[in-house]
Amino acid sequence: MSPSPDAPALAVDRARPDDFARIGQLTCDVYLDGGLASAAYGEQLRDVAGRADRAELLVARDDEGRVVGSVALVLEGDFGEVTESDDEAAFRMLVVDPAGQGRGIGELLVTACLERARAAGKRRMVLSTDRRMTTAQRLYERLGFTRLPERDWQPAPGIDLLVYALDL
After folding, report:
1. Which residues pair with 58 in a beta bridge?
2. How many whole angstroms separate alpha carbon 61 and alpha carbon 81?
3. Domain 11-122 is of which CATH architecture?
4. What is the pTM of this model?
5. Residues in domain N-acetyltransferase (predicted)?
6. How far are the Cα atoms of 69, 106, 131, 136, 144 from residue 141, in angstroms, in the given order?
């Protein structure tokens, strides 16, 4: 869904250390309070500084500079846990403030990841998502991602992740 013409302007940029507390709270609120992740995953969700050390942490800001969404773009290394070659990029922990959902924030963040991955010379974007994250899956499919069921995986017993990919 694209933002309406009268919606506040949104911008994507790199997260700053002073954004980390907001990103951690937002991520926990969406994933844990939304029933999309177990409490055991909470420590990783709160470790924003650790994400920033292992990925390019991007944020969407509203016209007042508030963080309204975030995503960790993985261009190298194994933090994505789903890449299989140096030609692949991944993103993780895509989150949008529930008050801002439906304004195109998630799409804006995914598009920023795709543009940055292309600029880095990557040939494919891959991601994994929990079966319960149906809104995110609809976004990915609308943007052209397709399922790679042969790469689905379980990071822990009872946690079944679906893998999607998009050739860049």
Report:
1. 14, 71
2. 27
3. 3-Layer(aba) Sandwich (3.40)
4. 0.90
5. 10-168
6. 20, 13, 14, 9, 5
